[in-house]
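seq:
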Amino acid sequence: MKYYIGIDLGGTNIKAGVVNENFEIIAKASVKTNCPRPAKEICDDMAKVSVMACEEAGISIDDVEWIGIGTPGIADNVNGTIPYSNNLDFHDVPVREYIREHINKPVYIANDANAAAYGEYVAGAAKGANNAVCITLGTGVGAGVIIDGKILTGSNMAGAELGHIVIDMDGPECTCGRRGCFEVYSSATGLIRMTKEAIAAHPETIMAKYAEEDGHSSARHAFNAMRAGDAAGKEVVDKYIKYLAAGITNVINIFQPDILCIGGGVCNEGDPLLVPMKELVAKEVYTRMIDKNTVITVAGLGNDAGIIGAAFLGNAG
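struct:
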């Protein structure tokens, strides 16, 4: 049996998993990232947590084929560096060099959304596809594109930032500095913003009650209000789905993948989200007049996608 280490490097936690050749996570370990602090210390902890995961799995780090890392920001797998990560305050960090000071194994690096997409491609909802796109609706909109089994990174390792396709040039400002990005509307953050705006405009809405009870507005409130027959809640949900469908249609028109899978907590809403979104995409997509079209489905690996995808980056080309 072959074993691989997959690391999900985040701004809050560094999580490592030992993954076997059947794409099964057999053990995990984690430590706090504790940002901000020197990049060298964070890399040292990635090596440390890799060893911890191996101990938990009952194997030695010597039994591992390689280490793969999914990181926020730009990842240069050719040179083994992270040129830029705003979340971690990394600038031209020689990650591979730092890790190999502790563990003499090959080290592969990818953007975290690309790693998660690759996980879905090798073992999740996109398994068996030739070309796939995976989109995560979280604080932002993360995305990864797999073409002929390889991760699309672009010439500068910063490709597939699909969350920054513009939906409305006069829309709200995005964290990237543009206005009206897909991310502004279709992230969980965007849904919360639209919920707050609806509460301000309709103080009688049941969403106001939900927000008061929880002490904050949530991405769940609009859907819960819609289910309760609240008109303002339905308006928010309809608006959110309209923008989500527009962004997904854009992505399908560009890449024409076999499968497009979406993940993130918003997807837990199930059919009230997915059915109308798919109907809108089917009406708008460029290839609507032909038989073969992209299959839209929900991501299958949840929070494990990043670890599994990172673990198999050595095969990603």
